[in-house]
């Protein structure tokens, strides 16, 4: 009964390729989210100026 061996994960150093792939994936995901946010803000701004140009909205407060 003596001498039971338990399988333990051996600790290795960092894998450069794995870290590069993870970093690249996270960077592309964050960049994609940022671009989607930026495009949404551009669309809102473009819509605002289009409505302003057509006279449908005004930036001057209406007098009562």
What does this structure look like?
It is rod-shaped, with a radius of gyration of 28 Å. The chain has one helix at 16-54. It has 64 residues and is mainly α. The chain is built from one helix and no strands. The longest helix is centred in the middle third of the chain and has 39 residues, at 16-54.
Give the arrangement of secondary structure elements.
Layout: H1 16-54
Describe this protein with a few key phrases.
64 residues, mainly alpha, transmembrane, Cytochrome c oxidase subunit 5C, transmembrane helix
Give the averaged pLDDT, no decimals. Answer: 89
What is the SS-derived class?
A: mainly alpha
How many strands, what sense, and barrel or not for the largest sheet? Answer: none
Would you report the number of β strands?
0
Taking the alpha carbons of the first and last residues, their distance comes to 94 Å
Q: What count of helical segments does DSSP give?
A: 1
What general outline do the C-alpha atoms trace? rod-shaped
User: Which bin fits the share of residues in helices?
Assistant: 55-70%
Gyration radius, to the nearest Å? Answer: 28 Å
Topology as a string of helices (H) and strands (E): H
Q: Uncertain runs with pLDDT below 50, 5 residues or more?
A: none
């Amino acid at each position: 009964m003596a001498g039971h061996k338990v399988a333990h994960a051996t600790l290795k150093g960092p894998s450069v390729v794995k870290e590069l792939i993870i970093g690249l994936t996270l960077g592309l995901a964050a960049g994609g989210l940022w671009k989607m946010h930026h495009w949404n803000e551009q669309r809102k701004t473009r819509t605002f100026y289009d409505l302003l140009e057509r006279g449908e909205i005004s930036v001057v407060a209406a007098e009562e």
